[in-house]
Amino acid sequence: MANVTFSSPLLHKDVTVYAIAGDRGTILSVAEKNKIPIPFECRDGECGSCLCEIVTLTGKTMGSMLTDKEKSMLKSLGKITSAEIAKAETDDIMPKYRLACQTIVRDQDILVKFAGDEPGGAE
Fold first, then answer.
1. For an engineered disulfide with 28, which of 24, 47, 90, 100 has Cβ 3.0 to 4.6 Å away?
2. DSSP-assigned beta bridge partners for residue 6
3. Do the beta carbons of residue 89 and residue 18 sit within 8 Å?
């Protein structure tokens, strides 16, 4: 089990939920199951609207494989460099910025910071 804490101006206070590590659930799907309004548009890693900052809260750090779409989007948003991608893939360390729709929750406690003007999203 992993604790996932969501923090955003859209929330009245931080919300911590339990996520089952390894069930292949993304941060976005965990948020939706718990009615946490992460902004999103495409669910496919192509729009960048679910951009979030990830902070590892436990001593254990684990990466989560970056998809090609996520790498491309994060680079175009100026949130990751090629060197940071290589380090994340080589050292299995999660980069600071991720897309909630692409990031699989692993067995570690994390803080997910996100912004946005509209709660929820459209498919």
1. 100
2. 15, 112
3. no
Per DSSP, the residues of 22-51 read TS--BHHHHHHHTT----BS-SSSSS-TTE
Upper half-sphere CA count for residue 60 (Cβ side, 13 Å): 8
Split the chain (123 residues) into runs of 10 and give each run's mean pLDDT.
Answer: 92 93 82 95 94 87 82 96 91 90 90 71 39
Task: Return the SS3 of 70.
Answer: helix
Q: Edge-to-edge strand order for the sheet containing 15-19?
A: 15-19, 2-7, 110-113, 51-56, 97-99
Phi-psi region of 28 (alpha: psi -120 to 50; beta: other; left: phi over 0): alpha
Burial of 63 (0-12, 13-18, 19+ CB in 10 A): middle
Token look-up 């948020």 returns 31
Q: Per the confidence metrics, is the pTM higher than 0.70?
A: yes
Rounded to a whole number, what is the distance in angstroms from the first to the last CA of the chain? Answer: 29
